[in-house]
Amino acid sequence: MFSIIYTPTEGDAIQNFSRIFRQPEGCFLNIFDRDRVYDNLAQWGTADDIDYIVVTDGEEILGIGDQGVGGILISVAKLVITTICAGIHPARTLPVVLDCGTDNHQLLNDELYLGIRRPRIRGQEYEEFVDNFVQSARKLYPKAYIHFEDLGLSNARRILDKYSQQIPCFNDDVQGTGCITLAAIMAGLHVSNLDLKDMRMVVFGSGSAGTGIADQVQDAIATESGKSEEEAAKQIWCVDKPGVLLKSQGENLTPGQHPFARDDSEWQGKDHKSLLSIVKEVRPHVMIGTSTKPKTFTEQVVKEMAKHVDRPIIMPLSNPTRLHEADPKDIYEWTGGRALIATGSPFPPVKYEGKEYVVAECNNSCAFPGIGLGMVLSRSRLLTKTLLVAAVKALAAQAPALKDPDKGLVPDVTDVREISVHVAKAVIKAAVHEGLATEEGVPEDDAELDEWVREQMWDPKYRPLVKVEKEGATSMAKGEAGIGGTKREAR
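Structure (tokenized):
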């Protein structure tokens, strides 16, 4: 089902949006009609009608890049997932696209393209457009939770940082990937009998996903150990095209990369560009791949890591499968079955020396729907780091590997509605504890809270149909069946 409503089918639909368009789905906002943003949003209901908004500008869609106005379908797909996975009522959601133009030359030259046919507008004009949307949405739908999706690399983290201290909002590319990956790491550390405060981690690929993972791990280390964020960041080595991120790279670093840039003196006279050399120097317990560079976790790199760590935690997360940094089967062989693995796409179980190992999939759908459900039900004023760490702990607690180390580091997506209940409860409890929840009457007892959450999850249950004869049917039913009224002869 996921492969139909989401990637890869959804990616194909987005790329062909203007060619298969039949009727509008969601709210289309145009950067050249900024004066109409409020009025266009107002068409979707009253202040109490909308719980969850997903908004995109279509710049970085599903690994297929800039899709312009076709990005509306990613907003639709994400909301479908929140309904399936966490019971968010579909009639209380709103998909939005911010049409700012596109840098996709294929779309610019396509006469059928439905969006603005000009290069992307950036800078102050873009900032004002986004702010106009946020302020209008908050005024019209003050209880709504805003989920930013697939914004460009230069905007995703910056916009999240700007609004996360003002409104209840979330970015799945930055925070969702980080949450599910951190949950897998926590489960792996439990199996390895290692504390988070002692872990060393290399992130290979420091775009929005990689730095988002680093953020979540940093926050968790700081929260769990009492260390400052600066001290926690020293346990993380982020690597990108120039190699290990260094402070001397200055303006070439994105806002998300800056906190993880190392002092140049640490790498003076050392090779900070080769992944093998970095692994030799750092001796990481955890290695994350978000580079989209296939086969970069080579046999030599993996074996070097395994020399220094009893249970290496290795996560090739790049999507789609052809871009994975390594195949799980190879990793198990190179580590003698000692590796703990999670991937970004589904892989079948691996058999090695008579044992079968389950390869966990770090699927964001196990994280963001439950977090959203908790935010909607608690009406939390903000989504803070404390709430996210609580969600991650609840997610990690469901990992099959806690009972059997040969099982998955994160729960399977087939159990996602049950998982979402646990995640939502953790978010709600944390929101109440932090004084952020504005919903009244939230149960304090765990069993009562469980029932309270489940009762408010939407289920697609159809009313039973009962056949009645014409004489017993209501006038409305007769009208719908085309058998109402009295026939009269034509004059």
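Residues 371 and 424 are 6 Å apart (CA to CA). The first helix runs from residue 2 to 5.
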